[in-house]
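[Help] Beginner question about ligand-bound structures

Sorry if this is basic. My supervisor gave me a protein sequence and a SMILES string for pyridoxal-5'-phosphate and asked me to "get the holo structure". I don't really know what that means in practice or what format the answer should be in. Inputs are pasted below exactly as I got them.
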Amino acid sequence: MSGLRPSRRGETAPASPIRRLMPYAEAAKASGARVLHLNIGQPDIPTPRGVIRAYQTYAEPVLAYGASEGALSYREALAAYYNDLDAARGGPPIEAGQILVTTGGSEALLFAIGSTCDIGDEVLVAEPYYPNYKGFSHILGVEVRPITTYAAEGFALPAARVAAAIGPRTRALIVSTPGNPTGAVLSWDDLNAIGTVCRDRGVFFVVDEVYRDFVYDGAGTAPSVLSVPGLEECAIVIDSVSKRYSACGARIGCIVTRNAAVWKATLKFAQARLSPPVVDQLAAQAALQTPAAELRVAIDDYERRRDCLVAGLAALPGVTVQKPAGAFYLIVGLPVDDAERFAIWLLETWRLDGETVMLAPADGFYATPGLGKQEVRAAYVLEVPKLERAVRILASALVAYSGRTPVLA
Ligand SMILES: Cc1ncc(COP(=O)(O)O)c(C=O)c1O
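Answer (accepted):
No worries, everyone starts somewhere. Holo just means with the ligand present. The predicted complex, written as structure tokens, is below.
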């Protein structure tokens, strides 16, 4: 042993609550059990054929680097997409020069935090949040200050609560809408009210819109912050093809900002990593041609899955769940002592017809210590029969689990 240690920031980086129980799932599978993965937001809907074809027909003799900001033809196609989006009409048109292509929405988040915050600065995040907001902030030496939202309030984020949380070191607010893990969708009025607070207080408003299309009950797409006039300087959109086109492996996302200085700062990060994936951009450009009807079929499917999972879970004694308006996640309150202990116990011990369920303990979706201890996040990215089986497994498990808390009738 050399005694060489990794960096403190590496050692203390938070483990992904979505993946940290994977060794238990692997052990369950090795012992012959089937595992229903409700822990991860990996859509199972087939990727549009046009996307796959773009990979199959790539014929260049050399797979060269591309432009750091992304291929112009793709950025022009993306600008047309944003300008066509009903939910984005209202603000000035988006131009290709306001878009920077990234390696997934993940890199867009990293770049957005890096180009708005310095070491020791602070970002506000509405908790429960997408855990990488904290992970990426940690990597960049930026502190996360949570603004707690509550299931009983539909995970609403009142602008007044944002205003109250802004401190001297606050540089940005990051929210996802539709929300991961809450499923909450911010209305245009919400975006306007929160964005106005951010603008007036000199705070960037980073809006993660990767689930824009996943809105149910006939509500169309989620409103985009790009459609709110007056936020040109402070609004930054995070986007991705992963969920919209069921193309998580394509690793293509983007940043959209009308703030030219932020775009230029982001470009420096982009130049440091040379170029986003080249063939994947062709595939992502092809994805923009996906017929709206094909996307609609997928959204309708998710709506059926949501309805199945919410109804099944709501019927279990002591389980609390809100019907989410969008995305494909649920925060589920469980009558157990400790959701992580329960999730591990499920993987280690509990089988129904040789099958068990993997859940993501929700404490990793909160920065406030103690919150989320009796909650899990469930993703409804499995077919309805599998979700029905998952509910049956949970129903039987909650009866058998020794750490269950008393349920009042
Ligand atoms: C809210 C949110 N933002 C960003 C991402 C990053 O996605 P990707 O890097 O695949 O584009 C995810 C992935 O699950 C997400 O849930």
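A couple of things worth pointing out: The chain has 13 helices and 13 strands. The first helix runs from residue 8 to 11. Feel free to follow up in the thread.
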